[in-house]
Structure formats: C-alpha cells, structure tokens
UniProtKB/TrEMBL annotation:
GO terms for cellular component: condensed nuclear chromosome; DNA recombinase auxiliary factor complex. The keyword Coiled coil applies. This is Homologous-pairing protein 2 homolog. The gene is PSMC3IP. The keyword Transferase does not apply. It is found in: Nucleus. Transmembrane segments: none annotated. Residues 154-204 form the Leucine zipper with capping helix domain. Its main location: nucleus. One of its GO terms (biological process) is meiotic strand invasion involved in reciprocal meiotic recombination. Belongs to the HOP2 family.
Length: 221
C-alpha cells in the first residue's frame, strides 16, 4: 500500500507537475518537465512546484553535477494487489489471443480480396466471350476455305508476285554471271584452285540452283 501523506497540493502548477510525474513515473529535470508539459507551466513555476513537492515528500530529487533530477516517490504510488494483477494478466492473454485471431482473419480476407480483384468481372467475361466467338467463326471460315481447295490469294496478287520474282531472278542471274567472270579473271594466274579460295572466303556461287527455273513453277509447288 502507498504511504499516506498528510500534505496536500495547493497550487495548479504543483497539481500539473505531480499528475504528470505520477503518470510517467520516470526521472525528469525541470527543463524536461516544462518541455513535456508544452509550457503549461513556466520554468520558474515548475522549479517552485518541484521544490514544494520534494518538501512534501511527494517527489524525490537527485543532483548530478549542476543538474537535478526529480522522480515521484515510489511509496506514494498505488500498487496493484496480486488478485488484480492476475486478472489483468488474464485479460492481456485474452486480448493477445484475440489480436492473433483478427490478424489471421485479416490475412484470409486480404487473400480473398486479392483473388476477387484479379478475377474478371461479368462484363469483362461477356466481352471476352464475344471476341473469342468471333475469332472462332473466322477460324472456321478459313478452315472451310482450305478444305475446299479454294485459292486464298487473289489472281492479281499472284501475278504481281510472279512479276517481282521474275525481275529479281533476272537480277540475281546477271550478278552471279558477272561475279563468276570477274572471279575467273582475278584467279586466272593465282596458285591453287579457285574453288578452294571460294571456300576460304566463304563464298557460294549458288550452283545447285537452276537459274532458268520458271517462277510460276515455284508458286505452283
């Protein structure tokens, strides 16, 4: 039980300081008290209050060099009896268990929410179904054309491609012939076989290709 004091707190600064010191139950200097009370009392008022409270044996002081520290007397603090302490401990255990359950529930709900947020809405599903149905119909039509043997490339396009291929084939043949003539002239007096030089330079003459092939024959294959 706390030691009963016959002294009373008479001034407002004393009440403020004593209430604060009792609640905190930690050592403070006058400067700390004034700062923590957000200037509710001046430094002079605080100094007078702590001096008075020390005289009334409600605070105790300890001087370290030039600084004095004040703390509430421990024998004035109301203590909790064992039964009350046991009840508080039990309540704390229940609260901790409840917190653990709530955290687990929160985690479960967060997982469910993330799953719902990642799922498509009804409108999105309906739109997706329309798009896929349309693509499916297009694929069916294309498949039917292939199965029927119909020519999917228009005649005009086939003719244009044939003309372009013929033009490029002629250019290729001319340049191939020109290179062979130049290469033959350059290597005429060189030692070794021209074929070996071609292999060393990694040059291919496209000999396996028939330069007289008809491009229409390629398109028909």
């Amino acid at each position: 039980m706390p030691k009963e004091k016959k002294t009373s707190v008479s001034s407002k600064p004393e009440r403020l300081v004593l209430d604060y010191m009792s609640k905190q139950n930690r050592p403070y200097s006058v400067t700390d008290i004034v700062s923590n009370l957000h200037a509710a009392v001046t430094k002079t008022e605080c100094q007078r209050a702590v001096n008075s409270l020390v005289e009334k044996e409600l605070l105790t002081s300890k001087t370290f060099g030039k600084q004095t520290i004040y703390v509430v007397r421990q024998d004035t603090i109301e203590t909790v009896n064992p039964d009350e302490l046991a009840s508080i401990d039990k309540r704390l255990a229940q609260l901790r268990e409840n917190i653990a359950e709530q955290k687990s529930r929160q985690k479960q709900l967060s997982t469910e929410l993330a799953s719902l947020n990642s799922a498509l809405t009804t409108e999105e599903i309906e739109h997706r179904l329309i798009v896929l149905t349309s693509k499916n119909e297009q694929s069916k039509e294309h498949l039917l054309l292939l199965q029927s043997g119909s020519q999917l490339v228009p005649v005009e396009e086939r003719q244009r491609v044939t003309r372009e291929m013929e033009t490029h084939r002629k250019l290729w043949a001319q340049r191939r012939r020109l290179f062979k003539d130049m290469f033959s002239t350059v290597t005429e007096n060189l030692p070794g076989k021209p074929k070996e030089l071609l292999e060393e330079l990694d040059i291919s003459l496209d000999d396996p290709i028939d330069i007289n092939i008809n491009p229409r024959d390629l398109l028909s294959t």
